[in-house]
Amino acid sequence: SPYMVHLYDEGRRSVPGEQVLVLAHALCGGGEGDSGDEAADDLQRCVGQILKTFNGQRVHNLRALMQAVECGGRWLKLEMRSGDVVVLDGMTLEEQRAQVMEVHRIQKPMQLRDGGGGGGHSA
Question: What's the pTM value of the predicted model, to 2 decimals?
Fold first, then answer.
């Protein structure tokens, strides 16, 4: 998008390997009456938005975000640049991840290429 090019060209990156993290899509598990329904709705509302902080800290690339989620604790707070905030329950994260992976036939939860600050990614 022109905005992403602007961020890159204008030198807004503050550290080498910094990436603009955009929530491009949110997959849901499809369970009935899940406690995560509200969080799933919040995530859907944030699709297309740029991540500002995770648990109050800036993350500079996808690899750093993945590591922060793995160590995130009970509550996982994503604040978008727009000001929207999504809080996920870290206690149910693995269960929800497994359900999403089963419903959407995903073999690996995330896979990052080696090398570089964040490299590319594939799911």
Answer: 0.71
